[in-house]
Design brief:
By secondary structure, this protein is mostly helical.
């Protein structure tokens, strides 16, 4: 890894440096999708009543967004390698703003669900292209540092957005949620149009589906990319498996009402935010490889402590949430560094790398959520098995990378 970082620095110094984007703007375009993903959760019951459908049907407004994000990242990343980061980001943000307005005036649950899929398809542009822009402008540990700060902003948005959605729903109705985030999308769109220069100085001239597929296949043949992309995918799957199963565990194991989930899960999110801050602050000092190793050690140690809550039958939910918060600190430390390493596997197609990595993260996480639901019983054992199992796989796939990277 050290040799790759030195090579990146040399290449960066020899090339004409791309214009440096505003970090604030990068945070805004990346956080937009994260903010809108969870903001509608408190309003789902009201939507179901209005449209005369079940709450389980309205849950598709969340699932459709996840599908839109997964598919969108595969499209926007390779396109930004060919058309440039700026036009793809502006186009995706425009789709996001328009789709949000369509959701605001949706006449049926099907229309709302379709609008959410389109909204997420546009919103994920900021996530995938934002990472590629960082990689265009910064090499090695410096890119990991900035990715750490950007993902910290995303985590904060995930934490705050349900509260904002609940307030807007109570004060003005659920349609106001989509009007507000559409306005936010338009503001980011204007900021990108006025303040974002093109950072992809060497766009690929190859257009069409076949060249994109060729790039994606090349990434899948790259051992450093596969190792670090799967490392982040299994780590994210561990997180999603926990947050998806924790409400059921609270009810069946601890006999607590579902509302208490909202009191405990911020502890885990705060742990991840703290880990991101550490990554942003110290990645340049210690380097990618040591930050990945240290973060993985903390994540595994913290998460493994959940097993003691099961073995000792500890009666307080904090027995699982506090260890998971410690594990989230470790995950927050190593994830930005692993993502930077994956994006550095081939700088020519950083957009495709960002999109494919994001796609793998979403699909593996979806599989983990499905699995933990299939093996659920009235104990902590299934959740522990899936959460620890996916995190162990996150560590194991690092052996795929060549020595010295």
């Amino acid at each position: 890894m050290a040799s790759l970082e030195r090579h990146d620095e040399v290449v960066t110094s020899l090339r004409a440096a791309p214009p440096l984007p505003s970090v604030t703007l990068l945070v805004a375009v990346t956080a937009l999708g994260a903010f809108s993903m969870h903001i509608i959760l408190p309003a789902l019951p009201g939507m179901a009543r209005l449209f005369g459908t079940s709450e389980s049907t309205m849950q598709w407004a969340v699932s459709a967004a996840l599908i839109g994000v997964a598919v969108g990242q595969l499209v926007h990343g390779p396109l930004s390698d060919r058309l440039g980061r700026r036009p793809v980001l502006i186009g995706g943000t425009a789709v996001y703003a328009i789709a949000s307005l369509l959701c605001a005036f949706a006449w049926s649950s099907d229309a709302l669900i379709a609008g959410r899929a389109l909204q997420a398809f546009g919103a994920c542009t900021g996530m995938v292209v934002g990472r590629a822009i960082i990689r265009d402008c910064y090499a090695g540990a410096r890119s990991a540092s900035l990715i750490g700060y950007v993902t910290m902003a995303m985590a904060i948005c995930n934490l705050a957005s349900p509260a904002v959605g609940a307030y807007l729903d109570a004060a003005f109705g659920w349609r106001s949620i989509f009007i507000v985030i559409s306005i936010a999308g338009m503001a980011v769109l204007i900021a990108c149009a006025l303040g974002l220069a093109e950072t992809n100085r060497d766009p690929s001239p190859r257009l069409g589906v076949a060249p994109i597929v060729t790039d994606l296949l090349a990434l899948l043949r790259s051992r450093p990319f596969v190792a670090y992309a799967l490392n982040t995918a299994f780590a994210m799957a561990s997180w999603f498996a926990f947050v998806a199963e924790a409400p059921f565990v609270l009810a069946s194991v601890y006999g607590r009402p579902a509302i208490e989930y909202g009191f405990y899960v911020p502890l885990v999110t705060a742990g991840y935010v703290l880990g991101n801050f550490v990554a942003g602050r110290y990645s340049q000092r210690f380097g990618l490889e040591r930050m990945v190793a240290g973060g993985m050690a903390i994540a595994l140690a913290g998460t493994a402590l959940i097993a003691f809550a099961w073995l000792w039958a500890l009666p307080d939910p904090l027995a699982i949430f506090l260890p998971m918060a410690l594990g989230a600190i470790g995950t927050g430390i190593f994830m930005p560094n692993a993502m930077a390493a994956a994006l550095g596997a081939d700088r020519r197609i950083a957009g495709a790398a960002s999109g494919l990595m994001g796609f793998l993260q979403m699909m593996v996480s979806a599989g983990a959520v499905w699995l933990v639901g299939q093996v659920r019983d009235d104990s902590l054992a299934p959740m522990i098995a899936v959460v620890l199992g996916t995190l162990a796989l996150s560590l194991a796939v690092l052996w795929l990378r060549p020595r010295g990277t």
